[in-house]
Design a protein that fits this description.
The structure is a homodimer. In chain A, strand 2 and strand 3 form a beta hairpin. In chain A, strands 4, 5, 6, 7, 8, 9 and 10 form a 7-stranded mixed sheet that branches. By secondary structure, chain A is an alpha+beta fold. Chains A and B meet through helix 1 and strand 8 of A and helix 1 and strand 8 of B.
Chain lengths: 177, 177
């Protein structure tokens, strides 16, 4: 319980569930799940990973990905994140996966992409950016489970141009349907 | 400009863009795009549509769909909305489309589904719920463009079990990639 901001649970008029409201200013904090947009970017046979410069999981490797902003499509968000985190201009060619992390109210849209122009380097949220062959991926230093899922999905789809996007692996919240 | 709630644009510490903050209580309203989860539900060759009992577009026909709630996967959201709006228990079999409406910061995940058990009726947000053959769909009384897109996508995918989800039609914000 905080002592400022939206902190009282009430059901607003016309709604059907409790929302956090601020008793001082009347603001209703409608909270909705957040979308993450990201990409598995390949260059020839190698995959781009970014070593995180920020918490959580600072020092661990991740895909360029982040929260979608207002007035942005998921594709635009994935391109923006690739630029912000890896100074990479990417070209998206397919939706690789849709992952759900309901515990933290997150849905991730991960695209398959290539470099649209040569060159990349660490952006402000990355310690370093590097390309890895499959065998060289630092599997023990991967930041989040869904990064591993997306890399597996990428490999499974390597020679496929048309495919249904992957979802969480069996047993991980929702089964593949 | 309102006179209460978050209404001052400032860049919070550690952020890189302006957010609405409340000068009275200090609350930062991090706004993110909202996700809509919905479904094209078919029964044999007919498609379920709901006539809206609420604004916007009251009286027009739509798919069972609505805003994803916290701690919910998109599939769960689509099933909940089918229950709330059409008292239908559905079984999802594919992700049919991912549509972006960046003007209103919305991303829609539309699934292809069938009835998991017989029966449906109007929920509190619907005036009526009905099944339509393709020829009988009330095309001039469809609530939103993306409903039409999803219906077209459904028809195009009718005999396909594995396919990439559709995106906005060409020229409608983002091209098919």
């Amino acid at each position: 319980m905080t002592d400022q901001g939206p902190r009282i649970l009430t059901i607003p008029a016309g709604d059907d569930r409790e929302r956090l409201t601020c008793p001082d200013c009347g603001f209703v904090a409608y909270e909705n799940p957040k979308m993450v947009a990201g990409s598995v970017v390949s260059v020839d046979e190698r995959i781009m990973l970014c070593r995180r410069a920020i918490e959580p999981r600072k020092g661990f490797w991740t895909l360029p990905a982040g929260f979608l902003e207002l007035n942005e499509t998921p594709e635009e968000g994935a391109r923006r994140e690739a630029w912000e985190e890896a100074r990479a201009r990417i070209s998206i060619n397919a939706l690789l996966a849709v992952y759900s992390v309901p515990r933290i109210s997150q849905v991730q849209l991960i695209y398959r992409a290539t470099l649209a122009e040569p060159g990349f380097e660490a952006g402000p949220e990355s310690l370093e950016v590097a390309l890895f062959t499959w065998a060289d991926i630092p599997w023990n230093e991967i930041a989040f489970p869904s990064v591993r899922w997306a890399l597996d999905e990428y490999k499974a789809r390597l020679n496929q141009t048309v495919f249904a996007p992957g979802v969480n692996p069996p047993g991980m919240v929702v089964d593949r349907f």
